[in-house]
Amino acid sequence: MAVSKSLYGELNGVKVNLFTITNKNGMKAEIIEKGATLEKLFVKDKNGSIIDILSGHDTLKGHVERSDYQGVVVGQYANRIKGGKFSIDGVEYNLTKNDNGITCLHGGGEYSSSIWSGKEASDKAVTFTLFSKDGNDGFPGNVNVSVTYELTDNDELILTYNAVSDKKTVINLTNHAYFNLNGFDSGDILNHELEIKADYFTPIDETSIPVAMSQDVTNTPFDFRKPKTIGRDINNTSCIQIKNGNGYDHNFIINDFDGTLKTCAIAKGDKSGITMEVKTTLPGVQFYTGNFLDGTIIGKAEKPLTKRCSFCLETQVFPDSPNHQDWCKCVYDANEEYSSTTVFKFSL
Fold it and tell me: So which residues are the catalytic ones?
């Protein structure tokens, strides 16, 4: 195992470093301090080639000017909050409305746009830290947050999140990696096979805001309880939920949630043979299929990011839970620690 550090670039006079973690199998993770972004993830395919399975950017300019959250850590509250507001103990907080001017998306963008401070934690891990000031994007509390990326010799990338605030607040952190298990430049992901261990998903309206906590997946395009290709039902617009999301852009409620580490999804690249198992301690996972990428954003190797060129599996607390605090835990008292773990395990 080895960790290396190099200068990636400068942003407004501040140095941005790149950390590379490599394991004994040749698997390699590259993370930059801007957004604590998982920029590249190299995995061995069935032919023995090491391929980068993340869509996104390979220049600082790309991350700053073109990013659609590719690979970043998002917070203070991942996903959407209706109307850009919520209340705690009768006090209303008004947030940055950065999604069509009506919704707060991914906390307004602070965590994903900030330069985090990276530090080698061991010969296989790097920890990134960030301080978010009380009132940033409207959220209460001075928050100290960290995320640790650890790469094991079992080809597991482990993400451990911790945060604590000096005021009662909402917290929901995730990584927004865009995966293509055939390689970032290999075309669409429609023939990838996917299993999601969820009997229920969260239905949304046409603005992607939940209209209820849960809907049964039975006899819907959202039934991934047995593996099927991502593309099989993705264009079934007779389903209002597919129409509202322009494909899949929904929270799935993980079966048997109890706060321990559980497998929530398993994906397989049809060309590479790479299998990715996702485990988490969180109650939900957002499955997104790059529905709004249209080729206008230029990504790695100066190639356009096109519709459904990749997919996301964002482990999380349910969207808009600050306005439905009975759905799942999202509010943390002053000095109460938020902690979660997500594991991406790779095999052939």
Answer: 176, 314
